[in-house]
Amino acid sequence: MVKNPAPDATRRSEKSRRAIYAAALALVGEIGYPRTTVEGIAARAGVGKQTIYRWWPAKADVLLEAFLDLGEQAARAAGQETPALPDTGDLAADLKAVLRATVDEFLDPRFDAPARALAAEGLVNEELGRRYVARLLEPQLQRYVDRLRAAREAGAVRPDVDPRIALELFVSPLAQRWLQHTGPISHDYTDTLVDYALYGLAPR
Amino acid sequence: MVKNPAPDATRRSEKSRRAIYAAALALVGEIGYPRTTVEGIAARAGVGKQTIYRWWPAKADVLLEAFLDLGEQAARAAGQETPALPDTGDLAADLKAVLRATVDEFLDPRFDAPARALAAEGLVNEELGRRYVARLLEPQLQRYVDRLRAAREAGAVRPDVDPRIALELFVSPLAQRWLQHTGPISHDYTDTLVDYALYGLAPR
C-alpha cells in the first residue's frame, strides 16, 4: 500500500528481511526442509507470518531468496563486486582460484547445512528442484560458460568444445564429493580436477 | 534355528526375500524414504515384520540389499556375468559403452524413483549416506579405477593420473545431471564427456 515508504519504514523492512533470511537458513539447516514452515520462520525472526506472506508466496521462495542473498553477501565479503569469474588470461589459474573459494564455502557449516537440506529436498520435490537449479545453480554455472567461451576465443580451449558441458568436468566432481561424501574436498583436489580437465587423461 | 533348511523352506525364503525387495523399492519410490517403514514393507510383501527383522536390523539395510540385488539383476539381464568393466584395449570405447548403459538405467523409472529417494535421504542422513556410498556407489566406482589403472599400464592414460579422481570427470557430471536435473542426459552427452576427459579441453 505504501508506494513511497518513509526512510524509517525502509530500514525496518530491511531489518525484518535480514531476520527472516537468517531464521529460514538456520531452521532448514537444523530441522530440514520438510519440517521448516513459514510459521516457524516468522516465530524465529520475531515477525508476524503475514509479513512473510506479504513478500513471498511460499517457504521455498523465502529459502531461495535467503540463499541468493547469502551468496551475494559472501561475494561482497570476498571483495568480488562483480559476479563474473576472474580473467587474468591464465584459464587454469582462474578456474583453480574460483574452485578453491567454493571448497572453502562448502567447508563452512553456515553454508553447508542449509545448502545440503535444500539440495536434498530438490532431489525428491521436482518443482523445488527445478527452481533451485534455475535460480541458484545455473546462474553460477553460466559464469563458467562465459569464462570458457572467452578462453575458447583466446585459443586456450579447443574450438569444438561446448562450454556448458566442459564446465561439468571440474564442477560436478566437487559437487558430488561435497553432497554425497564420496571423498574429501581440498584445494589440491580441485587443482587436480582443473589440470585433468584442461590437459586430458591421455598422454599428449 | 533351522541350520539345514529343507529345499521347500529355501524356496519359500527366496520367494519372501524377492517380495520384500520389490515392496521396499516400490514404497520408497512412491512415498519416499522417511515414510517407508518395516511394517509397510512387510504388509506390502505379504510377510510378517518379524520375517524382515530376522534377516535385516533396519529398513536402511533392507533397502540397500534390495538395491544391490536390483543392480545384480540388471547386470544379469544385460548378460554381464562379471562386474568388471569391459577391456577391449580401446579405453574411450569401453567407457562410452558403460556410460551409455548407465544412462539407460537412469532413464528407467523402476531404477530412478527409489535411487533418487535413497540418494536424497543420504544427503541429510549422514549414517545412511555413508552406507549408501560404501555399499553401492564406491564398489561401482572401483570398477572404473581398475579399468583406468589397466589403461595407465597400457600407456593410454598419463602415468601421473590418479584413477580415483580421474573417473569423476565423466561419472560425476552424469550423476549430477541425473540427480539434480541440471541438464538432459543421453548417449551423445556421455560420449562427449569421455572425449573431453581423455583428450582435454585445451588444444593439443
Keywords:
TetR_C (chains A, B), Arc Repressor Mutant, subunit A, 73% helix, transcription (chains A, B), 204 residues, mainly alpha, transcription regulation (chains A, B)
What does this structure look like?
The structure is a homodimer of 204-residue chains. Chain A is mostly helical and 204 residues long. Chain A has two domains: 1-65, Orthogonal Bundle (Arc Repressor Mutant, subunit A), CATH 1.10.10; 82-204, Orthogonal Bundle (Tetracycline Repressor, domain 2), CATH 1.10.357.10. The first copy, chain A, is built from ten helices and no strands. Chain A has helices spanning 7-31, 38-45, 49-55, 59-77, 91-106, 109-124, 126-153, 163-166, 168-180, 187-199. In chain A, helix 1 (7-31) crosses helix 2 (38-45), helix 2 (38-45) crosses helix 3 (49-55) and helix 6 (109-124) packs across helix 7. The longest helix of chain A has 28 residues, at 126-153. Chain A is elongated, with a radius of gyration of 20 Å. The termini of chain A are far apart.
CATH topology of the largest domain in chain A: Tetracycline Repressor, domain 2
Helix content range of the residues of chain A, please? over 70%
**Distance between the first and last residues' Cα of chain A:** 66 Å
> What is the H-and-E element order of chain A?
HHHHHHHHHH
- Averaged pLDDT of chain A: 90
Fourth-tier CATH superfamily name of the largest domain in chain A: Tetracycline Repressor, domain 2
Return Rg of chain A in Å: 20 Å
Count of folded domains of chain A? 2
The backbone outline of chain A, from C-alpha atoms, is elongated
Largest inter-chain contact set: A-B, 54 and 54 residues
Helix count of chain A equals 10
Class inferred from helices and paired strands of chain A? mainly alpha
Question: What low-confidence regions of chain A span 5 or more consecutive residues with pLDDT below 50?
Answer: none
Biggest β-sheet of chain A: count, sense, barrel? Answer: none
Quaternary structure type:
homodimer
**β-sheet strand percentage of chain A:** under 5%
Query: What's the CATH class of the largest domain in chain A, please?
Result: Mainly Alpha
**What is the architecture of the largest domain in chain A at the second tier of CATH?**
Orthogonal Bundle
Number of strands of chain A: 0
Domain HTH tetR-type (chains A, B): 14-74
Protein name (chains A, B): TetR/AcrR family transcriptional regulator
Keywords (chains A, B): DNA-binding, Transcription, Transcription regulation
DNA-binding region (chains A, B): 37-56
